Amino acid sequence: MSSIKNLRIVFMGTPDFAVASLDALVSAGCNIVGVITAPDKPAGRGMQLQQSAVKKYAVEKSLTVLQPEKLKNLAFIEQLKSLQADVQVVVAFRMLPEIVWNMPPLGTINVHASLLPQYRGAAPINWAIINGETETGITTFKLQHEIDTGNILMQEKIPIGEKETAGELHDKLKELGASLIVKTIEAIAGGSIQEKKQSTISHELSVIKHAPKLNTETCKIDWNNNASDIYNLIRGLSPYPAAFTYLHDKVLKIFSAEKEIAPHNFPNGSFYTDNKTYLKFACADGFIYCRDVQLQGKKRMPIEEFLRGYRFN
Question: Is the pTM above the cut of 0.70?
Fold first, then answer.
């Protein structure tokens, strides 16, 4: 039996999603001996160097920060070894080479925003909603050779609301992940952790669903699909990168919508409006009513505001 405070932990992460987990570990009194995050990158109009969300937090807490360009760089590997970590925690970071994830004696623990083995990949939150799932969760697991395939340590489920967007679910899972990584590290420190092979779960599932990186084709609405599928796509891509269609040859992003199941004889993809309160597109079994949109070159706005300024003729 050991205390959570006695473990030397290296934390690896980059975006805001990872900050919650790092903060939870710090608040629990963990000994964070190093933080690995992405190099500063130029952004914005002035192309000023921007720090990652994790770096900003780490600097505020006076934690040691390393920002390697390449994870196999020998100088970085030596720096990492010198931190003498007992365990590494990875949240929303890059793929790690074996020389990195296999370094600490207690292994490298990843926090993944799905109930593995379902939704392995880069965009588990988005795909769970796009596919119309009613629940998802957080998994902590040990890194191994194949991506997102290591032994499961802990899991916690959470329901997905019928109208919930990827952004809203992201914020819930961020906090759930922070809580679960602390429980996982406590169990590792106390010697009570139980590992479970993903292959044993896979055999119980009829279908394994994946969560590949999102691309432009994913985001383009196919109006030949049914209303529920399109509605789920809009929720699953909101607020970023956002589902889109074309309105008079300009990209129209749709951030929120409502669906109506109704038989009709209109061409799929055709649109109708009263020029005041609604803009709806026909699909296979009904209509999608746009509620929150952004036309190419314009700001995001509620549909009523959009219609006040747009001319359809």
Answer: yes
